[in-house]
Amino acid sequence: MDYLNKISRVIIITTIIATFFALSESHPINSRNDLHLQLKRLFAPTSEKTWSNWAGTVTNNPQYIFRPNTVDDLKDIVKNAKVNGKKVRCAAHGHSWSSLSATKDYLVIVNNLTKVTVQKNVKYGWTVTAEAGASVKQIDEVLRSNNPPLAIDSTTVIDSVFASGIVSTGSHGAKTQGATISDQVVALQIVTGDGLLGIIYTVTFRVEPLFNLRMIDTTPLATDWLKPANIKKYYESSDSLEVFYWPFNQGNIDTSKDLLWVKQWIRTQTQATVSHQAWVIQKQLADPIIATANEVYQFLLNNPELTPTSSATLWKLGPGKFPSDLVLEAEDALHFQPGLDAIIVDTSEFTFKVDKDFINVSDEILYILKRLAELAKQGQFPLNIIAEFRINKASKSILAPSYDNDPNAIYCNIELSSYIGTKGWQDFATEMGKRWIDKYQARPHWGKEWEYVTGVKSFLRTALGARLEAFEKVRAKYDLGKIFFDNDSLKQIFYG
């Protein structure tokens, strides 16, 4: 473990490596039948022919799909890949929109690796170790049942995603003084070919005694609230902060009248005003509203001109019911949104450095309102679910969008989401992504939609610069054959 601890930071900082293998050159079996027999002698593949991500936006037809149940299964798959000269990619929950898991050879789906254990050590205090396919929800449940109850300081809003996935894509929460989930990792166990790079088997996170958060929801007028000084004040006074803009929530195309949904979390010693059990039931009560929203969005695909009216109705059923002020246990507060998996969306996210006075954060959110109003006048409604922003500290992970040499640097993550299949969505997401690249050297979230943005791959190759060189030193040492990058987008970025 001492050696693992030394190399774990290197692995963690290469935030997308978790989906890769380093596999040495080998002598391939000549026929598919012989290969199948070879596979059967070790851990057998499934009969599945196709894999799709959660949103159905990426479909993959690998030669074989594996669903390992143990670490020995992973070892068998690696051995077989080495013998047959195959490349391997991994998938977890599949809650990524980019092509990171795509492969022509072996796809390893880690969903059956779900063990979670809690431990305490001298160096880190309390930690939790999760197998690659353990969901955030499973991790939370184990931590809650521990004596004493524990919690991860910052995590993703959605709790159905898996440990290896959120680490490997550089995912993040809304904690103002936090960075990416990768920055909370203290150790990894990896099944390798002949070197450092490989499949993540377990991830170990720092945790702490369960704490409470005061969760405050308000719905101010967007143009009033989006003042640089005001955003900065909220950032500095919040443990976590998430700001949502629900387009056309006042029922017309005059976005200057629209409201924001501002969610602020503050640590507190106050007892929870809603118990965990009551909160679970309260979230379940939202199911009919979510089902209704799904039907509305499907209707809008063919009737986009009704977006303002529909948005105003859904706003009143959801965020429009606020303000509210609750005290919740940490996991309940952080995973506040019910049914996020139930509405299938297209999502793009870019991250840029916040300027000294938060002016660029204010400018870009207000620009979204302005641009949507302009498009609405032309009968176009490409954004029909939400635009949101979260503000975090810089990451130490060298491939993270928010990486910075200055640990006190602050980054804004702007995410745009529309119901899948919305007309004009990709053009709008491309326009905004290109704007943020040109103005701020913004970088995309690896797990969201970014590959279709004009010039993004050549930009990333230039923008990552020295960090790619640092990565290449690791790769050159442990993967002489350059065969663990079975992904066209990443090849273009890393190797030109």
List its traits:
496 residues, Uridine Diphospho-n-acetylenolpyruvylglucosamine Reductase, domain 3, eight-stranded antiparallel sheet, four-stranded antiparallel sheet, 15 helices, 34% helix, Oxy_OxRdtase_FAD_BS, FAD binding, EC 1.1.3.37, D-arabinono-1,4-lactone oxidase activity
3D structure, described in words:
By secondary structure, the protein is of the alpha+beta class. It folds into 2 domains: 1-210 and 455-496, Uridine Diphospho-n-acetylenolpyruvylglucosamine Reductase, domain 3; 212-446, FAD-linked oxidases, C-terminal domain (Vanillyl-alcohol Oxidase, Chain A, domain 3), CATH 3.40.462. It is 34% helix and 21% strand. It is built from 15 helices and 19 strands. The strands form 5 sheets. The chain has an 8-stranded antiparallel sheet with strand order 15-12-14-13-17-18-16-19. The chain is globular. The model is unreliable at 1-34 (pLDDT under 50). One of its GO terms (cellular component) is membrane. InterPro entries: ALO_C, Cytok_DH_C_sf, FAD-bd_PCMH, FAD-bd_PCMH-like_sf, FAD-bd_PCMH_sub1, FAD-bd_PCMH_sub2, FAD_lactone_oxidase-like, Oxid_FAD_bind_N. GO terms for molecular function: D-arabinono-1,4-lactone oxidase activity; FAD binding. Pfam families: ALO, FAD_binding_4.
